[in-house]
Amino acid sequence: MRSFYPAIFYISLKIKKFIFINPSKLPLRTVLIIAFVTQILAVVGLTGWISFRHGQQTLDDLATQLRHEITARIQQHLQARMAMPHFANQINIDAIRLGQLNLNHIRQLDHYFWTQIQRFKDVSYIAIATATGEYIGAQIRKDGSVIVEILDSQSAGYLETWETDKQGNRTKISSRRAHYDPRERPWYRAAVKAGKPIWSDIYVYFTGLSTGISANYPLYDDQGRLIAVASADFTLLDIGKFLQELKVGQHGQTFIIERSGLLVATSSSEKPFRFDASAQRTKQLQAIESSNRLTGATSHYLLAHFGDLTQIDKSYQLDFKVENQRQFLQVMPFQDQWRLDWLIIVVVPEADFMERIDASTYDTIRLVIVALTLAILIGIVMARWISEPLQHLNSAAKTLAQGKWHPIIELNRQDEVGQLAHSFNCMTQQLQEAFTQLEEKVIERTQALEAKNLELLSLNEQLIKLNQDKNDFLSIVAHDLKNPLSAIQGAALLIQSDYDELPKDQVVDFASMIAGTSHNMFELIKNLLEVNRIEAGKMKLSIRLVDILPILRRLVNDYQQRAKAKEIELIFEPTLIECPALVDTNSLQQVLDNLISNAIKYSPPSKCITIRLKQNASHVGCEIQDEGPGLSEEDKQKLFGKFTRLSAQPTANEHSTGLGLFIVKKLVDNMQGQVWCDSELGKGATFIVEFPTPLH
C-alpha cells in the first residue's frame, strides 16, 4: 500500500515523456485523452502519497477534535435535560404564587399533575409537599400509565396511590402507605435547609433498576414562612442511554462521575450501582471499582494524575496507556446554578483512529481506480469540444429568458462560434444595464413612497394625540364644570323659591357653597387657559435675576391658615440669606404656589410639611417635603402628564383638575429649570425644583 502512490506517479511521468517525444505519431484525440489521464495520474499519486505521509501527523488533531465534540455534545445534553426538573418546579411555584394552584384543596390538583407529568418527558416524578404535611405527586410508568399519590386530611394519614384512566380521572387505590410524612424525607429537609432550589444526592430506586436525582424548590410567603416544597425527579438511566447512542470511535467510551468518584452514568452496559451485601442495600458504584476495564483504568489514572478529583477545575486533554495501548482522554467539569458538580470523561483508544486511517487509505486506492476510469471517459468526451460552446450559449440564452443574468461566456476563438459568443455577451451586458437603471428608478420611487407613508403616519399620530386631548378636555368640562354648575343652579333655585322660609345660616351655607364651587370652576378654567397658552407657544417670559426667598416666605405665610385648618404644621427652613435665580417672577410664584398647595391638599391631618432652600454653584433649588401617602411607580411615570388622575386623593375632598403639575413642568422647562419628585409609596413625597443661577 505504501508503494502504490509512487508507482502511479512514476507511470504518469513515463507516459508524458513518450507523448512529448513522439507527438506527431498519435491522433489529436488520443493525445488529448492521454495527456488528461496522465495529469490525473500524477496529481492523484502525488496527493495520495503526501496525504499518507501526513496522516500520522494529523492523528492527534483528529483525537482532539473528536474528544472536544463528544464532551461538548454531552455538556449540551446535560444542560438541556438537567434544567427540565427545575423548570417544572418553577412553573408550579409560579402557579402557587399567582393563585392558580390552591394548596388548601390539594386533592383537587390531581388533573393538573396528571397533565404536567406527561408534558415533561425528561421528568419521571413531579410532586408538592406542603408545610402542613399534605402531599401530591404524579408518575409515569414504563407502560405509559400514570399514577397519582395523595396525602391529605381525607386520606387519614395514609399515602394513597391512585390509578388513573386516559382522561386523568382517578379510578382506584392500588396501595396505601402508613406513617408517611413528606417533611421527614431527605429531599424536603435538604431544600428547607438550603432555603433555595437545589439538587438532592443521587439515590438508587427501590426497584433497583436505575438511579435518580431530585430537584427541589422551597416556597416562602412574604413573612419568610415556609409554604411548600416543589420536587421533580430525573432518571439518570436516560443519560446512560444518551451516552450509549454517541459514536466514540469503535471502542471508545464516555462516562460521568461525581467529584467523590461515584459513577453517575456510563456508555458501557455496566450499571452505575450494585448491591452491597455487607450493608444489605443497593448503592452507587465507585468508578475505580468498575468491572469495565477502560472505565476502571481511566479512573485510576485520573486519581494518580490529579491526586484529588476536586483539583480538576477546567477541561483537560490527556493520554495514557492501558496494556501498552495508547488512550486519548478528555475530562471536563460540568456545573450548573443548582450546585450540581460532575465530571464528563471521554476516552478513545488510538487503535480506533488507526483503523480509520487505514480504511481511508484503501478507500483512496479504490477511488483512484475509479478516477482513472472516469478520466479516460472524460477525455473521450472532451474530443467533442466543438459542440460545447454552442451548448453554453443555449444554456445562457435560456437562463436570460428566465430573468437570471448568466455569467459572460469567454471563448478565445476567432471563428463563427467565437463571434456569436461575443455578440451574445454584448447583448447581455446592454440588457443588464437597462434593467439595472429600471431597478434603480423603482427603488427611488419606493423610497419616496416610504417617506410619504412615514409622513402620513406622523400626521396620523398627531391627529390621534389631538383627538385624545379633545376627549380629555370634554371629559373635564362634562365632569368638573357640569356637575358644579348643576349644584350652583340647584342652590340658587332653592334660595329663590324658599328664601323667606330658609334660616339665615342655611342661606349663608348655600352662598358659601356657591362661592367655593365657583372658585373651583374658576381655577379649572384658569388652568385650561394656561395650558392652552403654554401649548400654543404664547407665553412671554421676562427672565431676570430674582431673589426666591421673599417670594417663598410670603407664600408660606399665605398658606399657614389653610394648613392650620387641616392641623398640618407648615415648616419653612430659610437656611440662606438670599437666593438669586434667573426666573420669571409670575411663573416662579405660580410654580411654588402649585407645589405648596398640592402638599397641603394631599397631606393627612396632624402631619408636617417642610420647605427648604438649597444652592450650589450652578443652581438654586427648593424642596417641599410632605408626609402624605407617597407615590407608586405607576403614578411617578405619569406624574407631570396632562389631565392626570393619581391613585392618591386629596385628604379633605379638595378639588383637583389634574393640570397643576403639568403646568408646573411646562413653566419650569421654559425657565431652563428642572423639577422632579422623590417618593416611595407610604413614605410621603419630596418635590424638588431647581433654577439656574447667574454664574451658570
TrEMBL record:
BP GO annotations: osmosensory signaling via phosphorelay pathway
EC identifiers of the protein: 2.7.13.3
Domain Histidine kinase, chain residue ranges per copy: 476-695
Family annotation (Pfam families): dCache_1, HAMP, HATPase_c, HisKA
Record PROSITE patterns: HAMP (PS50885), HIS_KIN (PS50109)
Transmembrane feature ranges: 31-52, 364-386
Example GO molecular function: ATP binding
CDD domains in alphabetical order: HAMP, HATPase, HisKA, PDC1_MCP_like
GO annotation, cellular component aspect: plasma membrane
Bilayer topology annotation: Multi-pass membrane protein
Highest taxon above the source species: Bacteria
Keywords, alphabetical: ATP-binding, Cell membrane, Kinase, Membrane, Nucleotide-binding, Phosphoprotein, Transferase, Transmembrane, Transmembrane helix, Two-component regulatory system
Catalytic activity: ATP + protein L-histidine = ADP + protein N-phospho-L-histidine
InterPro entries: BphY/WalK/GraS-like, dCache_1, HAMP_dom, HATPase_C_sf, HATPase_dom, His_kinase_dom, HisK_dim/P_dom, HisK_dim/P_sf
HAMP domain segment(s): 384-436
Subcellular location, record wording: Cell membrane
PANTHER family: SENSOR HISTIDINE KINASE GLRK, TWO-COMPONENT HISTIDINE KINASE
Protein name, as recorded: histidine kinase
Organism: Thioploca ingrica
